[in-house]
């Protein structure tokens, strides 16, 4: 699956772990309706409550036509009334996908594995709701927009340095993309 990320029109932050802008579990529908928002993946409707407790991460197999780009993962509870309440999110800057190796540009014809740590959470998804994972490439202004240039200091980018990215998410047997949730067993 693919989507367009244009740094000239970053997807705005709506809720989440913020200090200086509105925070908390906010409905994501206004930003999901924007052009080129990204990709949305939904579970089936839950027949019973599902409680998760602990570290949540998303593993993606990605590709981009740019030297660098961001991948943002959001865990959302899609409620029966249609609201999409943000629970947590995380980001990876693709050229820093392996912190120990330092910055490494992407090559357009190569698929890369990235892992996004969303943090720790204790939450019960209620019966009748769905789990949703959104993948996009910006969360601005919470995270500085990635200009896709691959330059280490983005503030030095000129207009000519800012390309529009076509970002690809693979989800096959060879290149699986998935969320890892610590599910608590149902108790009497």
Question: How would you sum up this structure, described in words?
Answer:
By secondary structure, the protein is an all-beta fold. It has one helix at residues 29-32, and strands at 2-5, 39-42, 50-64, 70-78, 84-93, 112-125, 130-136, 165-170, 178-180. The strands form two sheets. Strands 1, 3, 6, 8 and 9 form a five-stranded antiparallel β-sheet that branches. A four-stranded antiparallel β-sheet has the order 2-7-4-5, with no helix packed on it. The N and C termini lie far apart (41 Å).
What percent strand? 35-45%
How many beta-strand runs? 9
Look at the helices and sheets and give the structural class.
mainly beta
Order of helices and strands: EHEEEEEEEE
What is the oligomer described by this structure?
single chain
Choose one word for the global shape.
globular
Number of helices: 1
Which consecutive residue ranges, at least 5 long each, have pLDDT under 50? none
Termini gap: 41 Å
């Amino acid at each position: 699956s693919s989507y367009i990320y244009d740094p000239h029109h970053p997807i705005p932050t709506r809720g989440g772990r913020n200090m200086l802008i509105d925070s908390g579990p906010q409905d994501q529908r206004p930003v999901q309706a924007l052009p080129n928002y990204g990709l949305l993946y939904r579970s089936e409707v839950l027949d019973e409550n599902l409680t998760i407790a602990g570290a949540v991460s998303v593993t993606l197999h990605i590709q981009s036509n740019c030297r660098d780009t961001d991948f943002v993962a959001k865990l959302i509870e899609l409620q029966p009334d249609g609201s999409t309440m943000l629970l947590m999110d995380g980001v990876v800057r693709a050229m820093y996908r392996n912190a120990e190796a330092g910055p490494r540009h992407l090559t357009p014809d190569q698929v890369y594995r990235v892992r996004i740590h969303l943090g720790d959470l204790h939450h019960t998804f209620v019966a009748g709701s769905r789990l949703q994972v959104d993948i996009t490439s910006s969360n601005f202004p919470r995270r500085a927009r990635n200009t896709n240039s691959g330059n280490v200091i983005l503030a030095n980018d000129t207009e000519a340095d800012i390309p529009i990215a076509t970002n690809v998410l693979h989800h096959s047997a060879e290149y699986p993309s998935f969320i890892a949730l610590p599910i608590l067993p149902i108790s009497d």
